[in-house]
Each structure stands twice: as structure tokens, then as C-alpha cells.
């Protein structure tokens, strides 16, 4: 029973539960026009272009030869490591090969992206920008433009009005990832997602996001230095043992095709306590330098300390 708060009234009326009506925009989530049919595996025909090769050889190496049409790729990394720079360079390369790219940003304005593209020496032909965080509005724009590649920066900024929580929550990230994956599979358009990481280095959000996407990659930085390593933690279309090496410069991320030569360029050949060790990273052999330093110890049990060696 509820009572009127007016001092001259005080009458009681039963409480009636009401449910707020969903707006028309909330019910505008994209669904395929035609339901998927049951098909026999032997009757399916593969597309002649099974992979989209990027001009970036290091990216092709990590992805197993290129981007598979209809795949969803998650690029995770710490803030400031260069995720947005790498995604913009991928957009530049794809546009140069004749594919239109829709770059959706929920963190930067179009003017800020334009400033970064000018720093990379890219005028922006073939790359279209959209500043939007409503995942349903994003998918509607994707359906209208039908680009050759879609880039979302980042998935943590997207939200759905149908999910009862704020952007960045577990429910919102799951819903956004699921809807983008459905559209990508239905239209055979690859989607690149930028994702944040937590303090322990894992992808922020629900683990189901990593299960839904086809490829999970991590862009890592060294504690000191300008090198960036692109590693693959999951790949449904290739190996996860490969690693791509980049160097952060004023002109963006530059791929390092010969890491051994670059890493050993400052090495002194006659240095005492230094040795070269071959290490195999996937199919690529790397020559690394291992240094040893000894000093007299007054302790009864001298210590051996290793840094950077597993």
C-alpha cells in the first residue's frame, strides 16, 4: 500500500508495478534478412580468395598468411602501446589495395584520428570514420556501407541499449562482441577489434569474448626501447607460435624484417662475458645476446640471478 505524501491528502492506493517501454532505437538491433539454411559440408564451395594479404609482412606472419574474410580479430594491449596506430596503418594498407575501410572510434574524435593519420603520412583516401558507441547504430552503418574491412576502437566503449548496464561492463562487452561477430559472419567482412587489458595482462571483459572471436593477438612493449612485439594467443586459421616485430618511430610502427640484425647492431664483438644464442620463435630463428656478470661474494652461499631468461 502506498500513501500520498501531500499533508492534506494522505489517502492510500495499492502499488502497481510498471515496466518502462523500450524505445524504438533499442529494438533496432540488426538481424539477417534470411535465416541460415542447413547445408551439407561437401556441397559448400570455398571462396577463391581465402585470405586478404596485407602489405605488412609481420602482420601476415602472425595471422598465418593474411586476414580471413568473415573473421573477427581482437588486438589487445596496454594503453599507449600503439594499438590505434597499428589499426590505422592496417586501414591505410587495406585502402591502398583497393578496399574501403570503416574505422569506428569511441575514444577519439575524427579530428584526432586525422592528426594521427597526417603524422603517419596518410591522407585518408578510402578510409571512412565514424564516431559512435551504440553497437546497433554501428552495425546499421556497416550494413549500409558494406566496407571491405571494419575496425572498432575499442570494443570496451560500445554499448547496447538492450543490456541493463553501462559501457565497459561484462554484459555490454559480451553483447557488442556477439552482434559484431554475427554481422561479420553473415557478410563475410573481417572485423578488427581493439581491446584493453587488465593489470595482469589479460583482455579486459568476459572470457567469452576471447572464445567468440577467431583470433586473439597481443601487442607488447619492452620496458625500455621502442620495439613492439605482436603475439598471437589464439588463431583458428593458423599457428600461434609466430611473433611480429615492430619499431615505434615518429612515422608510426615500422616492421622489423630482420630482428637479429637490428637487435645486434649495437653489440661490441670483443665484449667479455657475452655470447650469441640462437632462439627459434615460430618459424623464425633469432640471434640474441646473453651476458654474464660475476663478482666476488662474501656470503657463504653465492647467489645466481637471471634476468630475461626463462
From TrEMBL:
For the keyword Manganese, the answer is: no
* Keywords for the protein's UniProt record, in alphabetical order: ATP-binding, DNA damage, DNA repair, DNA-binding, Hydrolase, Metal-binding, Nucleotide-binding, Stress response
A single GO CC term for this protein reads: cytosol
The record's listing under InterPro entries reads: AAA+_ATPase, P-loop_NTPase, RecA_ATP-bd
Tell me which residues make up the RecA family profile domain. 48-197
Alphabetically, which GO biological process terms does the record hold?
recombinational repair
Q: What does the record give under GO molecular function?
A: ATP binding; ATP-dependent DNA damage sensor activity; DNA binding; hydrolase activity; metal ion binding
What PANTHER family does this protein map onto?
DNA REPAIR PROTEIN RADA, DNA REPAIR PROTEIN RADA-LIKE PROTEIN
Put simply, this protein is called: RecA family profile 1 domain-containing protein
Q: From which source organism is this entry?
A: marine metagenome
Amino acid at each position: 500500500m502506498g500513501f500520498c505524501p501531500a499533508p492534506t491528502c494522505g489517502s492510500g492506493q495499492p502499488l502497481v508495478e510498471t515496466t518502462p517501454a523500450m524505445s524504438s532505437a533499442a529494438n533496432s538491433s540488426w538481424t539477417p534478412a534470411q535465416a541460415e539454411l542447413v547445408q551439407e559440408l561437401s556441397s559448400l564451395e570455398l571462396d577463391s580468395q581465402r585470405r586478404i594479404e596485407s602489405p605488412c609482412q609481420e602482420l601476415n606472419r602472425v595471422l598465418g598468411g593474411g586476414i580471413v574474410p568473415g573473421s573477427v580479430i581482437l588486438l589487445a594491449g596496454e594503453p599507449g602501446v600503439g594499438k590505434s596506430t597499428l589499426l590505422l596503418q592496417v586501414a591505410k594498407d587495406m585502402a591502398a589495395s583497393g578496399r574501403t575501410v570503416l574505422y569506428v572510434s569511441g575514444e577519439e574524435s575524427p579530428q584526432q584520428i586525422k592528426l594521427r593519420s597526417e603524422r603517419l603520412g596518410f591522407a585518408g583516401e578510402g578510409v571512412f570514420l565514424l564516431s559512435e558507441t551504440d553497437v546497433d547504430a554501428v552495425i546499421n552503418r556497416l550494413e549500409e556501407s558494406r566496407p571491405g574491412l571494419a575496425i572498432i576502437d575499442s570494443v570496451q566503449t560500445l554499448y547496447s541499449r538492450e543490456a541493463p548496464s553501462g559501457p565497459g561492463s561484462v554484459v555490454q562487452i559480451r553483447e557488442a562482441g556477439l552482434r559484431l561477430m554475427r554481422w561479420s559472419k553473415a557478410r563475410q567482412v573481417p572485423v578488427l577489434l581493439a581491446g584493453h587489458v587488465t593489470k595482469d595482462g589479460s583482455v579486459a571483459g568476459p572470457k567469452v569474448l576471447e572464445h567468440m572471436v577467431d583470433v586473439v593477438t597481443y601487442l607488447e612493449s619492452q620496458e625500455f626501447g621502442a620495439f613492439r612485439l605482436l603475439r598471437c594467443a589464439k588463431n583458428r586459421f593458423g599457428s600461434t607460435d609466430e611473433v611480429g616485430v615492430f619499431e615505434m618511430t615518429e612515422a608510426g610502427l615500422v616492421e622489423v624484417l630482420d630482428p637479429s640484425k637490428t637487435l645486434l647492431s649495437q653489440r661490441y664483438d670483443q665484449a667479455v662475458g657475452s655470447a650469441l644464442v640462437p632462439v627459434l620463435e615460430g618459424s623464425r630463428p633469432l640471434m640474441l645476446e646473453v651476458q654474464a656478470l660475476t663478482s666476488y661474494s662474501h656470503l657463504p652461499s653465492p647467489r645466481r640471478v637471471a634476468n630475461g631468461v626463462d
